[in-house]
Amino acid sequence: MAYLYRLFINLLIFGMKVFAWFNSKTKKSVEGRRDSLSCVQSAFSETDRVIWMHAASLGEYEQGLPVLEKLKEKFPDRKILITFFSPSGYEHVVKRKHIADAVCYLPFDKKSHIKAFLSHFSAELFFTVKYEYWYHLLQELKKKNVKIYVISALFYDGQSFFTSYGKWFVKQLQLTVDWFFHQTDVSFALAKSIGLTRSSVTGDTRFDRVKQLREGHSGVPFISEFIGDDKVVVFGSSWQAEEKIAEEVWAGNPYTRLIIAPHDLKRVQRLKEIFPDAVLYSRIESEARNNSRVLIIDSIGWLSKLYHYADIAVVGGGFHEAGLHNILEAATFGVPVIFGNHYKKNPEADGLIAADGGRAFEHSGRAADFVLFLLRNEEMLKAMSSHAEKFITEKPDSMELIIKKMLSQSETGKK
């Protein structure tokens, strides 16, 4: 099976290089990896003691960040490395202020590539987020006696680990991973069923992150003036389906303000066609704001703060296979969250629905009808708002549980 894995990695590399000719994101991923070695060479010496977090993409980075920040707080003399697999996470972080000494792409999982990468620094503690596992990376880290953890771990039916051909990789996890910190009881039970017993249920660290977001909210310029005393529906990371919902809500309720933050800024022009009188946030200070009920966010970095102003949030990604975007950023402000039900591997979505702080719909038309119903039903709106906030507030402080366990096992906590 190890031979087949090496073949898979070679095919992955070849496939990505070919696809890079046709896809800009893949091109960035392939070209970015050429700089990974030089990145760690310039940032670290061979004797630097490094705490390393790996995340597949932006969502996983946000899950891991509370833990990384706490480790840096406790051990300010350690250097920090953050690696990504995909460009969405890398580009978001590298262009902004961050706590890392180096941010780069994880090299492709060939033994020679991983050995060369690890030769430029001394990793002391490594953790990956959710379900990002690479065979040679884990193997080489363990050879160097690095403590290895998985935070917000999520095992689910259908993963290769639960098949006959996946057993060999499970053996590698048994040998290398020091502890799994699971998001859910189901994940914990599934891992235990295949012999991954060094584990505990600590919940999802994103709850810690959004609690911090709520406590540290500082406002968004001009939004209160735009809203006035009207109710507001915020459409976060919207795709075409959510744009359709916005159009129906706009037509069905003349007294509601809409704030639309598309998942891709290339959608801004299309949104202006749908809502010709809409105000662009980049021009909000100069344009007559009170004449429009629709505000289009044409810059990045504001969405998580905008949910503070919402009465209802419609979060994108759940009406197709792209994947549901972050619903917790809205729920933390006590905002009912509406989304499509085509999501998977999102236990927080099932939890929010069970708590009656959110609703999922198969079709965008039904979702639009429910938004309009909520806007007319003040009592139900208040109840769902309360349930959404309670859903966040009652979650355990995952980060503290994780840090306590890490320090009890790791040499980091003894020096």
In short:
With 415 residues, the chain is of the alpha/beta class. 46% of the residues lie in helices and 17% in strands.
Feature tags:
single chain, 415 residues, alpha/beta, 7-stranded parallel beta sheet, globular
Describe the structure.
The protein has 415 residues and is an alpha/beta fold. The chain contains 19 helices and 14 strands. α4 crosses α10 and α12 packs parallel to α17. The two termini are 40 Å apart.
Stretches with pLDDT under 50, minimum 5 residues: none
Oligomer: single chain
Give the amount of beta strand, in percent.
15-25%
Can you list the strand order of the major beta sheet? 3-2-1-4-5-6-7
How many helical stretches? 19
Shape: globular
Largest sheet: 7 strands, parallel
Structural class of the secondary elements? alpha/beta
Helical amount among residues, as a percent range?
A: 40-55%
Termini, distance in Å?
Answer: 40 Å
Task: Report the mean per-residue pLDDT as an integer.
Answer: 91
From the alpha carbons, calculate the radius of gyration and give it in angstroms.
Answer: 23 Å
Number of separate strands: 14
